[in-house]
Design brief:
The chain is mainly α and 243 residues long.
Length: 243
């Protein structure tokens, strides 16, 4: 019976890979690009200005908004993620393919681009690297769903403030300092928890850098720079650092 279920799951996966649609990885990149270009275009439309720092944060805020949606999927589809983790584990044994890469290549029909079930697979495949995402009691699970539900609104506020300056610069700086600091702190703490819990022992060096070090470095390095920008907004009292 279990083998029949795996066979049916593998068959559905193969059908998804050949079905009409957009590869999940490309679709995610397009969503981030569209959101970022909206802010960049709006800034150029209203002020005729193009600024590299503003572009960087437009891209980062857009990426965080997508990740927040995925983190909501982590919360609402957790039982499904636990089941799919077993499927991907078996799939990896049978095919030798990396689950994360296979998921990103899976074609998503346009009518399902917002399906929580589709994007829940991102966590099921990541759990091959960090099993904490199939365990509600872990730090990784808790901080990610926290980010998913807490940071969208301040992210949108800063996105709009950096783009059209609708808030006093000091207020935007204060909001930014709070938001960026928690990203730096929590992402650093996740790294610590990953190694203290010994989760790095069952992954290769390539997997460690590709799936753990590099992605979380984005949420440390860019927010660390965001702290500097926030301090400048507060001390300067204007948006000069953003152009």
């Amino acid at each position: 019976m279990a083998e029949d279920k795996r066979d049916r799951s593998a068959s559905r996966q193969d059908e998804n890979n050949s079905a009409p649609g957009i590869p999940a990885g490309l679709l995610a990149a397009l969503i981030v690009a569209v959101l970022a270009l909206f802010g960049i275009g709006a800034r150029y439309h209203f002020s005729g200005d193009f600024n590299v720092i503003h572009c960087l944060f437009s891209l980062f805020f857009s990426l965080n908004l997508l990740i927040c949606y995925w983190e909501a999927c982590l919360f609402f589809r957790h039982d499904y993620i636990e089941a799919r983790a077993g499927y991907w584990r078996g799939r990896q044994r049978e095919t030798g393919r990396t689950p994360a890469v296979e998921f990103l290549a899976t074609r998503v029909p346009l009518k399902r681009i917002l399906s929580p079930t589709v994007w829940a697979d991102a966590w099921a495949t990541y759990s091959m690297t960090d099993p904490s995402y199939t365990d509600r009691r872990t730090l990784g699970f808790t901080v990610d769903i926290g980010n998913g539900f807490v940071t969208p609104i301040p992210t949108l506020i800063l996105y709009a403030a950096y783009t059209v300056g609708f808030l006093p610069a000091v207020v935007a700086g204060i909001v930014g300092a709070m938001l960026f600091w928690q990203w730096v702190y929590v992402s650093s703490l996740y790294w610590v928890s990953f190694f203290v819990a010994g989760r790095g022992r069952h992954v290769t060096r390539r997997e460690l850098y590709t799936y753990v070090i590099a992605p979380n470095a984005i949420w440390i390095l860019i927010p660390a720079f965001g702290l500097y920008v926030s301090v400048r907004l507060i001390l300067d009292g204007n948006y000069g650092i953003l152009g």
